[in-house]
Amino acid sequence: MNRMTRIAPFALFGALALAGIAQAQEPVVNIGDRHGHLRTAQEHIVAAYQLVGQAQQANREGLGGHAERARQLLIQADQELRQAASSANNGGRP
Fold it and tell me: Is 94 a domain residue?
């Protein structure tokens, strides 16, 4: 049994675990009113995330994986907005 054969199951498990973590972090509105524009953008991201999910259900997930990719990108956009608000709170420091 070569080394790659032994490592492959662990790599697959790791990838699935990361996908599960990303899925669990769906966007929520949690930026305060102090950053009104960022909060509004976050509200739109949450709405878009929910609408894409509805589209997936309506189309029985037959969207070629593109809808799921869009949802993952919305999660990333939400994370970036939270980091932007945090940076603004810290005087521009990350």
Answer: no
Q: Are 42 and 75 in contact (CB under 8 A)?
A: no
Residue closest to 83 by CA, chosen among 71, 68, 93: 93
Q: Is 81 exposed, middle or buried (0-12, 13-18, 19+ CB in 10 A)?
A: buried
Per-residue pLDDT of the chain (94 residues; tens, 9 = 90+): 566 566 666 665 666 655 555 555 899 999 999 999 999 999 999 999 999 999 999 998 789 999 999 999 999 999 999 999 999 999 877 6
35 part of a folded domain = yes
Q: Tell me the CA distances in angstroms from 41 to 27, 37, 74, one per residue in order.
A: 11, 6, 11
* Total structural domains within the chain: 1
Give me the numbers of helices (H) and strands (E) for the chain, helices first please. Answer: 3, 0
